[in-house]
Amino acid sequence: MWKVSPTRLEDMCTAILRAAGASGHDARLVADHLVDNDILGHHSHGVIRLWDYIEAAHRGELIPDAGARIVNETPTTAQVDGGWALGQVVATFATDLAIEKARTAGVSVVTVRRVKHIGRLGRYAEQVAGAGLVSMIFTNGGGHGINQAPFRGTERRLCSNPIAMSVPSGLAGPFLLDMATSVAAEGKVRVYRARGVPTPPGWILDSDGNPSTDPEDFAEGGALLPLGRAEGHKGYALAFMVELLAGVMSGGGISGDPARSFSNDSMIVVIDPELFVPMAELEERSSILTEHLKDTRLADESQPVLYPGEPEAEARLANRGSDIELPDPVRQQLVSMLRRFSLPEPD
Amino acid sequence: MWKVSPTRLEDMCTAILRAAGASGHDARLVADHLVDNDILGHHSHGVIRLWDYIEAAHRGELIPDAGARIVNETPTTAQVDGGWALGQVVATFATDLAIEKARTAGVSVVTVRRVKHIGRLGRYAEQVAGAGLVSMIFTNGGGHGINQAPFRGTERRLCSNPIAMSVPSGLAGPFLLDMATSVAAEGKVRVYRARGVPTPPGWILDSDGNPSTDPEDFAEGGALLPLGRAEGHKGYALAFMVELLAGVMSGGGISGDPARSFSNDSMIVVIDPELFVPMAELEERSSILTEHLKDTRLADESQPVLYPGEPEAEARLANRGSDIELPDPVRQQLVSMLRRFSLPEPD
Known about the structure:
homodimer
């Protein structure tokens, strides 16, 4: 493992992104998102992703110096064309736009298309909660990143189509839901594969459509099942709705009619809660709810009931100021990218 | 079993509701909702519910001649106080209000509190889709109807907190999601209990917190598990968000701080899709998506992939003009209510 300070890691990623053509502001923003995910322990969305971004830029699928453009807007809505710019830059722009509109109009909906990987959806939900607002975010893969079978089907037809939601809280972090509508995100299957251990039963099918617990079977063309296992019709219905909201309504790509390349087409809904309830009352009553749910007999005394978002809030507190530990191959990728751009290598 | 025409059944329910104090309009509306659910085969939300409504009115918990009132509003938002009126009347009023605001402002959010059982959530999602708009609806039990354990917990702490979503389609029915955030709705467990057969493993805990497949264990104080089974943290996070959106933001009741009595506190979000995509394009691209998902190798050739809402659309077509078959105890309840109000009995 490689131990590195978050600041140094962020500086390295920023330098690489700048060398690939991004502005100083955009490079810093993307680097901050990636390193923050590593701080939270969401390594699948951490600096390990930078290699893919630089490769996509090399192929011309991602344009690091492009910017987002508002295609049309009303006081409550906007459609954003990401111009195949860095996903985090486009999604941050669209989220800011939705926040601004909700502050004025009370509610807003912003869609985004032609946007590369936007990273951890929860980050944008946190951005909205940080502004004292409520969010619902729906994201597909623009008809790419197809890995999930529809309920009753045995072949890949959908992306893992995640949903995020957030509500401000008076606790250590906002109430935050951030979930794939498949039984698990593809990144989790990759972790099992890297460790060489079987995935839990009920997660994947092999390429012939048979239930499997071998992550290699997934990698060789198998499919993730929808959230819910035997009740997978619910996860599938959520995944289907995400295609409609994030793909069709953004004018982006969908399964069966894909975008030019992988695109995290999204819909961002923002609501001002103070048009409904004063913030002090929201915080007080949501704390009553949280305490009441935590005060429950447990299946396992070592596994307490958490509020959604508590794992992220805890990780942020626990890891503040600590070095990040990353596998050596991630360091090697960074070194390789630094060399490619003739940038100074880490010690 | 008792066979009865939908029209006659609706007339009987209307007469009972009028006799209990509802206006002709309101009585007809509630009767229509109840009978429509029986037509769809959603008998748990059919005329079997009328007995509870009349009993609640008798106890003074439901006020059949009350009406909903807008507590405060902006061009995009409103808070509705249901005044403990008939739930279907209040929810229809709130949905109409959300539709009207979304037509003008593009997006709207309406919350409702102090509202009795509103019935099948999908009905309001269908109402929005019928107006050519997109909906998301979140409903709790106002801190009552508690039947679901939080993830990792083994005691009832949450209602089954359903979510509905709809998008207009060019198909037989709208795209419609209508689901409990628990692994199954309580009504489904009741069906297993009535049949005297075990529930699927992974649905319920007994009152001591042990996994069970005996529906009697649920009836005697056990709990429903959250959607997702081993991935129940996802269903739980959805159920938690429903408490915040439907309960806290409506000013209604929540788990740990309940309303005066059972209240289907709700949040209704409506979006005008034509600010994002012309209806013809929405219909065309969503049909491409649907066809692509259906064109998938199946686990069981007799179980095709469906679009969300297809079962309801199929049931409506299949049962059009047919008599409804109801268990004899439902007929006996109706007769008893007709007698109570000195109304003519069925032949």
